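Quick one: structure tokens for this chain, please?
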Amino acid sequence: MPLNRPALSLGSGPRGVQDARRWVVDACHDMGRDDLAECAELGVSELVTNALLHAVPPLTVRVRGTVEHPRVEVHDGSAEVPPMPIDDAEDDLLLTFGRGLGIVARCSTAWGVDVEEHGKTIWFAPSSEPGGDPVEGVVTGERVAPAREPAPDEMRIDIVGVPLRMYVEFQRHYRELRREVRLLSLAHESDYPLAKDLSALFGALENDLRDGIGAEQIEQALASGAATADLHVAMPRETAATIGRFIELLDLADAFCREKRLLSLARMPDQQRFQRWFLSEFVRQEQGAPAVAWKDAPVSRSQDPSSVT
């Protein structure tokens, strides 16, 4: 079964390095990957040390990827990309705090920095033996899209009665999934060709989803303490129709999660129902159908009412 070990939150003191090392070694043992424990421990020690010295909270450690190809991740609240290591053997002998990425590059089969909206994640796939030739890291992540000009065929779409807790879960799941398939395709493209295809599709549709879901309206509703919100979105008809492709992509991603035994879970049935309703509203209204609120949608009738309050 996939490992679903929750992320480890770290404090600001030196004990955080010890906790991270112990936690990652235990995770390797839990997966039956004792062969990776030494490099995982060495790499996470360097990353957490760097984060404690140079980054900002919150600081967390987790393991993702698959049992066959696990990935150790250290997340912090700074979006600043650290200096990449110099490919110089003499300099490597003088590694100090802040230069630990050179060590990570020598104890992994792939590694990189993923810049996110509220921080960054430095990740590495531990190798079975430390001290090999350094692996070149990659930088990926958020790119701010230019402001979209109003389109001549722009239409209004009303998403009525959005349960905010379920929407926030949807947003979190999508970002995690998008990031997961991107990193899998970077680190192990030949082993996971579907991850590469999914990553390309998610990237092509990302701006449509980001522009179309009324994020500012959601944030205002959350700040007010409301349980539900009505979204009023202006977007091109073509974009509204395209967003429906996410339904197919998310179903495909669930199958991929189960088949490849990702170290994160596929969607639960209630998540699937909500996401199908939410995304389908864009497609239905683009085709001329009236808005259907979540509470009136057929897919919501099997949903426990207490879970959306």
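The longest strand covers residues 154-163.
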